Amino acid sequence: MDILNALVAFLNFVFIPAATYGAQLALGALGVTLIYGILRFSNFAHGDTMAFGTAITIIVTWGLQSLGISLGPLPTALLALPVGIAGTAAVVLLTDRTVYRFYRAQRAAPIILVMASVGVMFLMNGFTRLLIGVDEQRFADGARFVINVRDFREWSGLTEGLALKTTQALTLVVVVVVVWALFWFLNRTKSGKAMRAYSDNEDLALLSGVDPERVVRLTWIIAAALMTIAGVLYGLDKSFKAFNYFQILLPIFAAAIVGGLGNPLGAIAGGFVVAFSEVAITYPWLKIAGYLFPDWQPDGLLQLLSTEYKFAVSFVILIIVLLFKPTGLFSGKSV
Amino acid sequence: MSTNRQAESSNPWRAPILFAILAILFILEGSWRSAMFSGSWNTSLAILNMGLISAITALGVNMQWGYAGLFNVGVVGFLALGGLAPVLVSLPPVDGGWSSGGLRVLTALVVGLGTLGLAVTLWQRLRRGWVRGLAVTGALIAGFVLYRNIFDPAVIAIEANQSAQYGNLGGLGWPVLISWPVGGLFAAAAAWGVGKVALGLRSDYLAIATLGIGEIIVAVLKNEEWLARGVKNITSIPRPVPYEIALQQNPEFQTAAANWGFPLAEASGIWVKLCYMSLFLVVLLSIILLAELALKSPWGRMMRAIRDNETAAEAMGKDVTGRHLQVFVIGSAVIGIAGAMMITLDGLMAPTGYNPLRYTFLIWVMVIVGGSGNNWGAVLGAILIWFLWIKVEVWGPSLIGVLVTPLPEGGLKEHLLDSAAHMRFIAMGLVLLLVLRFSPRGLVPER
């Protein structure tokens, strides 16, 4: 019975939160990796673009709510999501037109593109603040729990409860669907194959008649969709605050690099590696240890690092992986 | 940029003219009261002082990026480490702080470092195979457990000591000016460690690695209360210049202020800021002098050769990674000095204030706008961008106020007026993008 309790506590406090967070990071890292693979630079504006897309979605959500439209148990934000994606796609295409295309045509060093993305980051940050302000916004509605603690306790007779929030379940489902759709697109459609060809060998792809500007446009649109979805899921799960999206840049980069930049499969793996290590290292294991070894009374909470160090964890993983595999676990690109 | 840095003929008057314009801006700010300027010398000098510190930070970044092409996005971390120095050097020691656990904390830190060293040695000495993996993992885990067993009780003891007022180790009680070079040393030591691990990485990877380092250093400062009280902040850091109150009570100063024709309170504020300004100018000019001398020496020519073509430099027998480490450490030391100066000027250590947008990315805007590779460019860019950063907060709302006058009264107009304060990010982004596009080598390009 105690092993079951420990298992439930583990699911509740470690596995489900980490899986949800990992899924959100994976979507973010997929966007970073796609941009790195096709446009060949690390996009520092990624976090702030996520915030921007989420802000559009939130505003549309508020509009829908004021009209009395809802999705029943599901959050209304899902209905607003397509508008958010379209708006973000329009904005990133505009930045590509006005900013990045110039440097691409010049064949400027990748670091110049990175620098330009810092400029875009400032702009996106400012626009997001103009649009929705700096305060914390909660926009999750609908049913709060799929499984709630009390029902689970009554059903199972365990002392430890299990909760599964709607947003967590939704995140996992949406991410599976999105990842499946992305891989189907990359592996089965002509445009997807063109993107992969362009990413693998630019010159060869150009020789075979791939239109580079089209590939770039597609990349931005897909990245915008991934960013907005990741941002909205993260916002639904935690809450929306523009600055948090800037901070999430580090774990997203860490995930993309741990998996291997430019490798979509790696981005997903990296997202989960980073999320699970963050949660496992900052979670106080005392409760679970208490179920497993009832006679053992340790002094502390059995927490390896305090929660504030969670960004540090992603970075340490990054360094360790890079020391042993300089291009990531799945052997990504290095331009 | 790194492939296209050949000097082109540039107007020798360009830098002096731009500096003159900058000076006029500060004079207007000090003397002309209007919608655009405050007309207060106190404000003008306050902006200038912070601008000078930003200029020193920008010089450090310029050494790393402009001379060596290293993309360091962890500026905020090195600034914060430098800021630790005034706290540890010039604050008076806390009664009972050291005796309650100081030595134990130091022992723990030595144990932690020793564990890392042991793991590295094991990794290098043992042969490839599962024995090596097991030994290294075992050493790391055992070391970590031992470290936490010494560290945690010591920290609890220190933080329990007079926790309302102190709860930290305190400082050495030395003059605050000594802490400036110490701040440089702190940052340099950290940079050496970071460089050893991360400098082998490609530019983008290095950027992200340093971004992480910056976050970690700030996280440590926020959490390790025994060190600098964390988010409880440290106030009343000693000053190298007189206090305004002391000046106002000094009869000599009272007559001097009357002669200048300034009210006493204003005059004392201006005097203190002028004192700071002279100190900062001495540091800034010495660093520029050293940097220019270094750049014009064979060492500087070698650095630029490495930056412009690493492969060729390596073929000539230059130790590229070694030189990169060297310039990374020197640049970070300069950033650390600026960090210590900033805390001295503020008189306050507040780790939550270390925001990477402001202390990393804004510094980068300064360097790019000013002219990477050129020390005077970096200084010009830093002071100019800092001036804009402060003034846009005033100009943005008035601009939006003018723009929204035709709009009807209501929610939208109010929302726009309320959020006008966020204009500064948009302005900075625009400045950076415009300069990158139309003058990629900056306002004062490298000669």
TrEMBL record, chain A:
Transmembrane segment boundaries: 6-39, 51-71, 77-96, 108-132, 169-186, 215-236, 306-324
Domain of life: Bacteria
Main location: membrane
Coiled-coil blocks: none
Molecular function GO labels: L-isoleucine transmembrane transporter activity; L-leucine transmembrane transporter activity; L-phenylalanine transmembrane transporter activity; L-valine transmembrane transporter activity
Compartments in which it is found: Cell membrane
Any Pfam family the entry gives: BPD_transp_2
GO CC annotations on file: plasma membrane
Keywords: Amino-acid transport, Cell inner membrane, Cell membrane, Membrane, Transmembrane, Transmembrane helix, Transport
Membrane topology recorded in Swiss-Prot or TrEMBL: Multi-pass membrane protein
Biological process terms in GO annotation: D-alanine transmembrane transport; L-alanine transport; L-isoleucine import across plasma membrane
InterPro entries for the chain: ABC_BtuC-like, ABC_transp_permease, BCAA_transport_permease
Matching PANTHER family: BRANCHED-CHAIN AMINO ACID TRANSPORT SYSTEM PERMEASE PROTEIN LIVH, HIGH-AFFINITY BRANCHED-CHAIN AMINO ACID TRANSPORT SYSTEM PERMEASE PROTEIN LIVH
Family of this protein: Belongs to the binding-protein-dependent transport system permease family. LivHM subfamily.
Protein name listed in UniProt: Branched-chain amino acid ABC transporter permease
Lineage: Bacteria, Pseudomonadati, Pseudomonadota, Alphaproteobacteria, Rhodobacterales
From TrEMBL, chain B:
Location of this chain's protein in the cell: Cell membrane
GO molecular function: branched-chain amino acid transmembrane transporter activity
CDD domains (alphabetical): TM_PBP1_LivM_like (cd06581)
Keyword terms, alphabetized: Cell membrane, Membrane, Transmembrane, Transmembrane helix
Membrane topology: Multi-pass membrane protein
One Pfam family recorded for the sequence: BPD_transp_2
Membrane-traversing stretches: 12-32, 44-63, 70-91, 103-123, 130-151, 171-193, 205-221, 270-295, 325-345, 357-376, 383-407, 419-438
PANTHER family given in the database record: HIGH-AFFINITY BRANCHED-CHAIN AMINO ACID TRANSPORT PROTEIN BRAE (PTHR30482:SF10), HIGH-AFFINITY BRANCHED-CHAIN AMINO ACID TRANSPORT SYSTEM PERMEASE (PTHR30482)
Protein name: Branched-chain amino acid ABC transporter permease
